[in-house]
Write a structure and sequence with these properties.
Oligomer: single chain
Number of strands: 12
Distance between the termini: 36 Å
Number of helices: 1
Helix content: under 10%
Strand order of the largest sheet: 1-2-9-4-7
Largest sheet: 5 strands, antiparallel
Shape: globular
Length: 156
């Protein structure tokens, strides 16, 4: 537990680790997360400070069955890809994705500068994640970790 409630998020380590299996892992190695909620020992929702370098993406396009997501653009220009197409977002803009909406989304940095996002999502148990553009599906296991499989249910 942190000694103080307040902290400077830029002092936390960044990680580009991903639980995606190959062949989908490499595409997510150009984004870096600082896990703010974990540092503050929060368990009901997650908050990440996500930095996407030029050419990177936040994730593969995905939609959650039981978890809401909210993203606020802190710095830079980023493209939001959803079921409706592409939108250009700049610092100060935000987007929300209600659980069960099936609005698959991702953020792609096609600019020459880093993008910084504040990503907030709840941690509702039993979540499933669909990935319409790739052969992958995820199911939250007891304990909160996701198990990734192909759309036909076979393991990677």
């Amino acid at each position: 537990m942190p000694e103080h409630s307040a902290f400077d998020p830029l002092t936390l380590p960044e990680s580009n680790a991903t639980s995606y299996p190959e062949p989908y892992r490499a595409a997510n190695r150009m984004r870096w997360n600082r896990r703010l909620s974990d540092h503050a020992n929060l368990t009901n929702f997650g908050v990440n400070l996500t930095r996407i370098v030029p050419g990177g993406q936040s994730s593969h396009r995905h939609a959650h069955s039981r978890q809401d997501e909210f993203i606020y653009v802190l710095r830079g220009d980023v493209e939001l890809e959803t079921n409706a197409g592409m939108e250009h977002l700049r610092a100060g803009m935000c987007a929300g994705f209600p659980a069960g909406s099936d609005n698959a989304h991702r953020f792609v940095n096609r600019s020459a500068e880093d993008v910084l996002l504040l990503v907030v999502g709840d941690r509702t148990a039993g979540d499933e994640v669909s990935y319409p553009d790739i052969d992958m599906h995820a199911r939250m296991e007891p304990g909160g970790r996701y198990r990734f499989m192909r759309k036909d249910g076979t393991s990677f």
